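pls design
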């Protein structure tokens, strides 16, 4: 057994804590962006780019259904994130939820997907920098 004498012990490091508004704001933004990363992923942006991007082509009903199903999976998570992060709650999120519960026929699958993706994009625009992907995002 070894005894440590107070005189020979190394001093404990003292953490430097910042109590200024700028640091609090940066921490708040980081935490909010981390929460948003549950819904805002690379895959979501890839799907939006496929549907709404510059080089977007009209998708087949089958491809439209696949992407629409993925967006339907994201919608409830996005709603939960938006409820926590955006005050007041934006009515644009209601449009996303309404479109997520629609089941269009094959003839309207692509049009529905474009409207659905556009409504999600409008919510992401309202989220601003919270909806930006982090460069180290592993998804």
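designed seq:
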């Amino acid at each position: 057994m070894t005894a440590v004498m107070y005189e020979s012990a190394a001093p404990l490091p003292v953490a430097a804590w910042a109590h200024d508004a700028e640091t609090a704001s940066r921490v708040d933004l980081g935490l909010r962006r981390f929460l948003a990363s549950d819904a805002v992923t690379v895959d979501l942006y890839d799907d939006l780019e496929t549907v709404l991007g510059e080089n977007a082509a009209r998708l087949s009903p089958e491809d439209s259904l696949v992407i629409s199903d993925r967006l339907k999976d994201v919608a409830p998570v996005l709603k939960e994130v938006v409820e926590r992060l955006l005050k007041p709650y934006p009515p644009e999120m209601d449009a996303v939820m309404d479109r997520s519960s629609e089941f269009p026929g094959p003839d309207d699958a692509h049009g529905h997907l474009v409207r659905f993706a556009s409504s999600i994009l409008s919510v992401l625009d309202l989220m601003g920098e919270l909806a930006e992907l982090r460069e180290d995002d592993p998804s």
